[in-house]
């Protein structure tokens, strides 16, 4: 086990050359303190947890100290924001320090909230405590749910003031990912007509992160296929746990299909497919039920940038890209339907299964039922007797309206000779008990703003085991309190 300094640092991305980034060191902060370290993330880079208490660690994860081999830089990218192309964005407050050796290959370490960069566009380059806590906890919670995501190694605070709607305190999150390249990174060069750089980026991505595609007859087409499939899968997984990202701009879409850039995200409490978690999203472009099609819209933006690489003949390359994009919905539905069957605890595949699942979702919507609780407690329903029904039905305002559905469900289970114990065990590995509900994050933020970080730590630990019964934490699985509906989350972070 090693300290952060011993991790065999380098910066692989820097080899791409200075078209792709601006060299930029983090701007130091005053009196940084460590708020929390994720043991699961630390384990990925084989970091000795004991070393995270050292002054050296805190100085590094707050941006005050730069490991000698690191080459700090801010990546340049573009992107479609709310449907409109912005020719140049870039890391305005994140600085990529470098990459280190870890389990399953190398991990890039990137400090978010590290101070201004050439891409800050008059903003301060900082992150505030509340947004850092949300990103830190959600990254680690999503990973524990089995959803591809960037990770969060550590969160720090500083007494330095940051101005948003009010004065807040500053904070950094040390993020980790195999790469932070976005759809928007490709878009930047494509729309500048710099096709050589598009190719250089694609080659780098394939070599470093999709090496298996080098064997393909058409590696760039294979790259598009892989990104298409991973994105479709990631969004199916979001839908299955009730996660809404909130700002699915193409600069917030990872070329590895990782959930990235946690801002005004939200998990569904009551099942409402039209849920808009981002209060700045007035048109509902990124509403919960829009995510699958917005995913395709974004992959189409990415596909556009690869057109010059797919074929010399523009018509042929457009056809090739189109064919791939046509498979998006099929991939998405394959993952989504498979997930729905698992959520219902079904072993075999019947055509009517999806209707059965959709019917339950429809009833949940009408009845204002809690998405997580309904699925989690569905495993209590028994095939041969009704002893589990009453408890489950308490999640619905008009329980009698659920009777016909319950009958169909029980008949379906009966038809495949489903065993109650086995099914319950399997379902409880699929339907989480604990998710990062907005109000739970809010409670942790409120305490942290009074310098009590215990709730951040408690939630981190809780959300590491989202599928396990944790009897002493039962209250954290409950429906949100009334005040939760008043919480407003916007892009201001
Ligand atoms: P986001 O919505 O957080 O993904 O950010 C969109 C763009 O704005 C990115 O280019 C960010 O780097 C930039 N940005 C957001 N907040 C800040 C900030 N406080 N300072 C500088 N740049 C920022
Ligand atoms: Mg972003």
Q: Can you give me a brief rundown of this structure?
A:
The chain has helices spanning 39-44, 55-61, 129-144, 183-191, 195-209, 219-241, 291-310, 314-326, 328-344, 353-366, 371-377, 389-393, 403-415, 420-427, 438-449, 454-464; strands spanning 21-23, 33-37, 73-75, 79-81, 84-86, 94-102, 105-112, 127-128, 151-163, 167-177, 243-244, 266-267.
Structure in words:
The protein has 16 helices and 12 strands. 46% of the residues are buried. It is globular, with a radius of gyration of 23 Å. Helices cover 40% and strands 13% of the residues. Helix 4 runs antiparallel to helix 5, helix 6 runs parallel beside helix 9 and helix 15 packs antiparallel against helix 16 (454-464). Strand 4 (79-81) and strand 5 form a beta hairpin. With 493 residues, the chain is an alpha+beta fold. Strands 2, 6, 7, 8, 9 and 10 form a 6-stranded antiparallel β-sheet that branches. The chain has a two-stranded antiparallel ribbon with strand order 1-3. The chain has a domain at 346-427. Bound molecules: adenosine monophosphate (AMP) and magnesium ion. Adenosine monophosphate binds next to loops.
Write the layout of secondary structure elements.
Blueprint: E1 21-23, E2 33-37, H1 39-44, H2 55-61, E3 73-75, E4 79-81, E5 84-86, E6 94-102, E7 105-112, E8 127-128, H3 129-144, E9 151-163, E10 167-177, H4 183-191, H5 195-209, H6 219-241, E11 243-244, E12 266-267, H7 291-310, H8 314-326, H9 328-344, H10 353-366, H11 371-377, H12 389-393, H13 403-415, H14 420-427, H15 438-449, H16 454-464
Antiparallel strand pairs: 1-3, 2-9, 4-5, 6-7, 7-10, 8-10, 9-10, 11-12
